[in-house]
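Encode chain A's predicted structure.
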Amino acid sequence: MKSSEVLLNQVQENLDAFCHKQRSDFEAISLDLVPVVDYTQSLLQGGKRFRALFCYWAWRGSLGQSVHQQDQNEVLESEDAIAGIAASLEMFHAAALVHDDLLDQSDTRRGAPAIHKRFESLHKEKSWAGSPERFGVAGSVLVGDLMLGWSSEIFGNALLHSPTREIESACRDEFSLMRVEVMAGQYLDVLEENAAATRSLSEAVGRAEKVILYKTAKYSIEAPLRIGAAFAGADQATLNSFTSFGIPLGIAFQLRDDILGVYGDPSVTGKPAGDDLREGKRTVLVALTKQALADRSKSMCDAFEELLTSRELDEGQIAFMQQLIKDSGALDKTERMINELADRSLEALAEAELSVEAKEVLRSLALKVINRNN
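Encoded structure for chain A:
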């Protein structure tokens, strides 16, 4: 059976081989299509690969003792297939990042230009007619859409090696639900950025938590776990245990991301300091800040809201908002929420009927998610 390192190497090999095939096919159509694949493959080189790892170890943990009763060739074939499924999840995640960066107007991703900025630069370098910005938008939309399709293709090819038709169907159901839920969460996120100022402040935290649940927690942690477990033929009780483990962990994951989006070190996160504030993100951290400020000073709350919606903040304004968030108590409250969610998640993992080895690896992964700095 594979170690995490070997699994991740195979995932990268699968993604590289897939991109190589797509590049060859695109070159046959037109050399002008080469950047589409090259930008995609470049984006797929980085990342923490949490989704691939959660998927794989949920599969390993759900196999239990049955792996010793199976034909060795069947086990090896299933292990190669789960690596393909893990690769499809990483492709799906990268597609979501392409669209997310465009929607948020983020210029960088993993320390490099976002996909829409790469297409914009290509336009400028070639001195083409029209707007570089519009070309960047068009290129990134198409790349993101292609990657969504490619993720389904990789996933479908891996499922050709499913042990049973029932397992294949269960995996497809989980994958389909993930795709729908993340799009729902993405829309709710965009809606909140635009409509929050017109809505009740008392419900802001609840709305932000729903965005987290559907935009991040489910597709980042819960879905990979459930897909991996489903491929092992897990029963409903095991699938439910992964939900109990994955949802609080996924929410904690995003709350940590929200803190990093305000206070993270650009040299580590690959994003400008205070990027979430520039983008006007309506996170739980921001909602808690506004509620605390409103209780103390309406004028201060209004000033914070005005800065949040300006989308053009200088370093001094970013520093001012960072201090307001800290002084309001919102930062400390968010940290406490992360700790409480982490405890719930790890308790659920401890109670799950999984192999000891998988539990240990999943616990280690969970701690990395909670305590990460990028």
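The domain at 4-371 is CATH 1.10.600.10 (Farnesyl Diphosphate Synthase).
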